[in-house]
Design brief:
Largest sheet: 2 strands, antiparallel
Distance between the termini: 31 Å
Shape: globular
Number of strands: 2
Number of helices: 2
Helix content: 25-40%
Radius of gyration: 14 Å
Number of domains: 1
Order of helices and strands: EEHH
Length: 97
């Protein structure tokens, strides 16, 4: 999660299943955007959606709310990069089970 008026650097990228220009702030978002783009089960996605005033569970759809994944970090950037490299492999391993 990021503060509402975050002033850090971002990469602006056009992603097919995202309407408009996707603003990507970290390696995790970049890796997950790639996963969502390749997943045939995903029709479209949003990122950096303001969640202010919503209770947990209110910002996911009734259909997919139980499959929502939120990841946050309080570890060094290098360890986040390792996670970003390994996470897609873990998702694929779970899909093939």
């Amino acid at each position: 999660m990021r503060k509402k008026n975050y002033k850090g650097r971002c990469e602006k990228r056009v992603v097919g299943k995202y309407e408009g220009v996707c603003r990507i702030y970290d390696p995790m978002q970049s890796a997950y955007a790639a996963i969502l783009q390749q997943d045939d089960g995903v029709v479209k996605f949003q990122c950096n959606v303001l969640l202010e005033g919503l209770a947990e569970g209110e910002y996911t759809s009734e259909e997919f709310g139980d499959r929502y994944l939120r990841i946050s970090f309080s570890i060094p950037t290098e360890e986040i990069k390792v996670f970003c490299e390994e996470f897609p492999k873990a998702v694929e391993a779970l899909r093939t089970k």
